[in-house]
Every structure is written in structure tokens, then in C-alpha cells.
Amino acid sequence: MPVLPDPPAAETAIIELTNAFRATQKLAPVRQNPTLAAAARAYAKKLIAFQGLSHTADGTTPAQRVTSAGYSYCELSENLASILARRSLTTDEYARRTVTGWENSPGHRKNMLLPHVTETGVGVVRVSPNEPKYIAVQLFARPEAAKYSFKIRNEAPSTIAYRFNDTPNTVSPRQIITHTTCLPGTIAFETTDAPNVKARYETRAGQVYSLKPTSTGVTVEVNGQSIGRD
Known about the structure:
Blueprint: H1 7-24, E1 31-32, H2 34-47, H3 62-68, E2 73-84, H4 91-103, H5 106-112, E3 119-128, E4 131-143, E5 148-154, E6 160-164, E7 167-171, E8 176-181, E9 186-190, E10 199-202, E11 208-214, E12 217-222, E13 225-226
Parallel strand pairs: 1-3, 5-11
Antiparallel strand pairs: 2-4, 3-4, 5-8, 6-7, 6-9, 9-10, 11-12, 12-13
Helix pairs in contact: 1-4
């Protein structure tokens, strides 16, 4: 009898290979989340009834499926794969073929290398006992609980304009604005009457941007320290 993949072991192997690939790009590993894994397996089973692969085969989106499973996310993506074992195929060979196929596909590769996802869930199912065809679904996500916040405090006497991820905002004198966001982004201060406040910074959790008056205009301090401009 031909050797064929063991689905649960293949799921584990796919995560291990995914993290090995992320490591080559200096990215943090993703950890397995049981809710994501359940959603991935459920959709893999549904795909058995459809010709070809589609992220909306049953009329739902990955976001809807994950939300229905009880997972709240900030960022989400999904990879699909279908492999027919025309000969003996070990679990490790199957996992490697699946992951290598994703690595060589621009869209799938992008999902595997999303820098801010932290969790994954993999589902692998065999189409039928009589057909050695396997469907794999892998979800990548950053949970909503991983949101972070930063603050902007205006200690200057004038209103300061700024953009966070290209969305325009203003902060009035003595005002403190708190931004809560899923992903790190770029904040850019823009003002014509304070030339040395024109700067771009990569936001981080817990940062406080203080706009302080000086003899020449306004300067920016981050967590109490002046830093160079981008």
C-alpha cells in the first residue's frame, strides 16, 4: 500500500515549515491557535464539495468564518492548497510541497511573511477514502487583543496638524489624543509655522509624543526624549 500523509501530523509540519521560512526573513514565529485551527479545518472540509479552490466557495469570507468561530482579529489572511498524491507521499513530503508551493506564489508568500501576524491555524483534510487528494487551509492572524495605543500631547500654544497612516488629524493646545490601533504605523507632523516639527516616526506601543514650544517653534519629544527626524 502507498504511504500517504497523516493530516494532523501534516498540520504540525506545515506550521514548523512556515516558521522556518519566516525565520529566514528575520520574522517572528506564529503560534498555533486552536480556534483558528478549527476554522481552517471546517473550511477545508467544506471545500471538498467544490471544484477548485476559492476563499469564498461557500459564500462566506475568511473574516466571516473566523468571526463565527469566535476569534476577534486585527489582521487576517488565508492560504489554500490542493495536492493529489499520485504515488506514495509521506507527511513531511506533503507538508514541504504545500509550503514550497505557497513560498513560490507571490500572494501566498506575502501572507506567510506578514510581519505583524502572531497566530496561525492549519486544517488538512483528505477528500475521500478513495481519492488521495488533500486540501490544506492555513490562516494567519493578529488577535484584536494585541491592539496597542499611543498618545499625542500638545504643549505648544498653536494647533498642530499631523497624519497617522495618511489620515489627517489635528491636536489643539493642551489636548491629549489617544490612538488605538491594530498595527504599527507612521505618524507625520505637518505644520508651516514650526518647521522643525516636520518629521515622520514609526509608532510603538505606549509611546507619548509631546509637542513642546521652543524659541524657534515646536519640537517633538517621544517618551520624554528628543529624537532625530526620519
